């Protein structure tokens, strides 16, 4: 148990170039050396002091053999779900995975055969689409619907047709990139629809801890489903990998674990075990401060856009640190990409999130306010060219 106390300073700028960072170092190759990267979904903040202290303590032992303490992390995960989201799964429902995306791929193979249909709701995190296509399954789209304010909802007409044709639905909850935390009513309706049709739901809930609204773990209401999560996004530990699956239904759990074993993704590495256990046990206060800082950053973006770029469509996200910006008034995607590069700003193009993403960009605002201000100034210069 760590005795470290967090000294939270999210305004501190921590240089990340030269650390092997995908977000910063690979950005130089992708966008150019002078580009400010606000794309990949990791944060420019230090991990919690308690996590750093526990990792340092483990590093003092010079042998890094195979870990055997997975039970501690699984218990910490269950305790965290109970404390943060008011749901305690049974102990045998929680298991290690090497990462959420590998587990998403494994679920596709476990519950469908090549050529069978899987439901995805774009615009959505790209691995939801590639998990289907890379495994030779049929992509069945139920695109989200947005109103004039940028508020997205599920496409019930499309879903009611799709669940009769598919054995599996991949749910992003909360939904990246559109910023929605699904309500209890929405999840109840979706769960009932899928249960009645015999369609299994795999729910990626890796962003749930950073929700600004109540989050409802999908299996807490519908046991015949799979929850995938990790401390990676919410405590800035993404580079360590690892995570957990939570499956209450014993039959579903056996089917999934068989594929996890075949795919050899049933373990979490030594340092991820240490870090995630520490985060879930000791990181609540740090994360509460983080959520407040991110909320303030989201509000800053809203005020900046109203003042400087009123034609950009933006609705403050209900979770996390990803701004989904409607920039279609400023040109087509190719023109926008060129303008952003010329202004020195690296963002995710909306089209990479599938149908419905055209004319949008995703901006990661998990950065010190001074960095965010510079990023917004670069966005203004790009769009005013």
UniProtKB/TrEMBL annotation:
Gene3D superfamilies cross-referenced by the UniProt entry: Aspartate Aminotransferase, domain 1, Type I PLP-dependent aspartate aminotransferase-like (Major domain)
Name assigned to this protein: cysteine-S-conjugate beta-lyase
Domain of life: Bacteria
NCBIfam families per the UniProt record, alphabetical: C_S_lyase_PatB
E.C. number: 4.4.1.13
The protein's required cofactors: pyridoxal 5'-phosphate
GO terms, molecular function: cysteine-S-conjugate beta-lyase activity; pyridoxal phosphate binding; transaminase activity
Family to which the UniProt record says this protein belongs: Belongs to the class-II pyridoxal-phosphate-dependent aminotransferase family. MalY/PatB cystathionine beta-lyase subfamily.
Keywords for the protein's UniProt record, in alphabetical order: Aminotransferase, Lyase, Pyridoxal phosphate, Transferase
EC category name: lyase
InterPro entries in the cross-refs: Aminotransferase_I/II_large, C-S_lyase_PatB-like, Class-II_PLP-Dep_Aminotrans, PyrdxlP-dep_Trfase, PyrdxlP-dep_Trfase_major, PyrdxlP-dep_Trfase_small
All residue ranges annotated as the Aminotransferase class I/classII large domain in the record: 42-379
């Amino acid at each position: 148990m760590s005795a470290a106390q967090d000294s939270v300073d999210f305004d501190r700028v921590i240089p990340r170039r030269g650390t092997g960072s995908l977000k910063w170092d690979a950005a130089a190759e992708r966008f150019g050396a002078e580009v400010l990267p606000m794309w990949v979904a990791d944060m420019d903040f230090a991990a919690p002091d308690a996590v750093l202290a526990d990792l340092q303590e483990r590093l003092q032992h010079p042998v890094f053999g195979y870990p055997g303490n997975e039970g501690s992390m699984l218990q910490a995960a269950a305790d965290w779900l109970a404390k943060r989201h008011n749901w305690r799964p049974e102990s045998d429902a929680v298991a290690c995975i090497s990462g959420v995306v590998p587990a998403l791929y494994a679920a596709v193979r476990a519950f469908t055969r090549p050529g069978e249909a899987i439901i995805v709701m774009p615009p959505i995190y790209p691995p939801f689409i590639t998990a289907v296509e890379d495994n030779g399954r049929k992509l069945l789209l139920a695109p989200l619907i947005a109103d004039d304010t940028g508020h997205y909802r599920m496409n019930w007409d499309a879903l009611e047709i799709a669940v009769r044709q598919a054995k599996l639905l991949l749910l992003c909850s909360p939904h990246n990139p559109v910023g929605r935390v699904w309500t209890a009513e929405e999840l109840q309706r979706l769960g009932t629809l899928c249960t009645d049709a015999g369609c299994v739901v795999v729910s990626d809930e890796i962003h749930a801890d950073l929700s600004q609204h109540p989050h409802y773990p999908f299996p807490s209401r519908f046991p015949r489903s799979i929850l995938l999560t990790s401390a990676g996004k919410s405590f800035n530990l993404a580079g360590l990998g690892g995570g957990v699956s939570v499956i209450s239904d014993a039959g579903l759990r056996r089917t999934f674990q068989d594929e996890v074993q075949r795919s050899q993704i049933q373990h979490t590495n030594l340092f991820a075990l240490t870090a995630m256990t520490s985060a879930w046990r000791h990181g609540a206060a740090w994360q509460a401060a983080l959520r407040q800082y991110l909320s303030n950053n989201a509000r800053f973006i809203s005020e900046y856009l109203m003042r400087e770029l009123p034609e950009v469509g933006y609705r403050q996200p209900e979770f996390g640190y990803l701004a989904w910006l409607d920039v279609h008034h400023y040109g087509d995607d190719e023109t926008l990409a060129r303008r952003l590069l010329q202004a020195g700003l690296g963002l995710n193009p909306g089209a990479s999130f599938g149908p419905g993403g055209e004319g949008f960009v995703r901006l990661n605002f998990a950065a010190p306010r001074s960095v965010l201000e510079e990023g917004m100034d670069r966005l203004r210069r790009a769009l005013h060219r």
